[in-house]
Amino acid sequence: MSLSLFDDPPQPAQPPEVLEPGAMVLRGFALEKAADLLQAVQQVTTQAPFRHLITPGGLRMSVAMTNCGRLGWVSDRSGYRYDPLDPDSGQPWPAMPPLLRQLAFDAAQAAGFPGFAPDACLINRYAPGTRLSLHQDRDEGNYAHPIVSVSLGIPAVFLWGGAQRSDKARRIALMHGDVVVWGGPARLRFHGVLPLPEAQHPLTGAHRINLTFRKAS
Ligand code: MD3
Ligand code: FE
């Protein structure tokens, strides 16, 4: 047993924070597994490197993305879709590492959504200055399934809006190891991420990595 400055000390489990019915933040839920999750992400990105997708409107997204699992979320001039093939390689996306699948299952269960079996994991990489403008996630076949999101690395401010784009958005700080679960009435809320400030994290350098687990089909 050795103590590393880079390991977060064990934390007592924190009670879930309910944002609204169907949406809850599990602070630190992924903390103990963070280093292993990032190692698994690195395995994925050797097969399917991060890339900046183009929106249907022709803009380059500032978030860099890749995927693992049976389906991957992609965007290009023709629109948004879930695709079984990585358009850059023509190959299937890397399999979802069991550690990632299990974490998503456990977090969904802790939030009151037992039996979550995601078939898609979108991996988003943010650098300082990267943002994600307000949007809804509407490319999945069945909105009855929740979405599980895992934040790793440098902190971000998440925008939590309403049912309309113009609804006032709340700001929620998301830190390394935090997990958020959205389902039920919260599933189609507008949401986004403010531009990231400069920061460093011992495990990710100047990056935030967000894993978003979905049942896409
Ligand atoms: C709320 N990603 O990839 S994860 C996305 O931090 C996305 O990278 C953000 O929004 C990120 O689409 C936020 C949190 C999240 C994901 C899906 C949601 C929040 C959600 C779906 C419905 C409501
Ligand atoms: Fe989203």
UniProtKB/TrEMBL annotation:
Coiled coil: none annotated. Residues 117-217 form the Fe2OG dioxygenase domain. Transmembrane segments: none annotated. This is DNA oxidative demethylase AlkB. InterPro entries: Alkb, AlkB-like, AlkB-like_sf, Oxoglu/Fe-dep_dioxygenase_dom. The gene is alkB. PROSITE patterns: FE2OG_OXY. The lineage of its organism: Bacteria, Pseudomonadati, Pseudomonadota, Betaproteobacteria, Burkholderiales. GO terms for molecular function: broad specificity oxidative DNA demethylase activity. Its EC number is 1.14.11.33. Keywords: Dioxygenase, Iron, Metal-binding, Oxidoreductase. Its cofactor is Fe(2+).
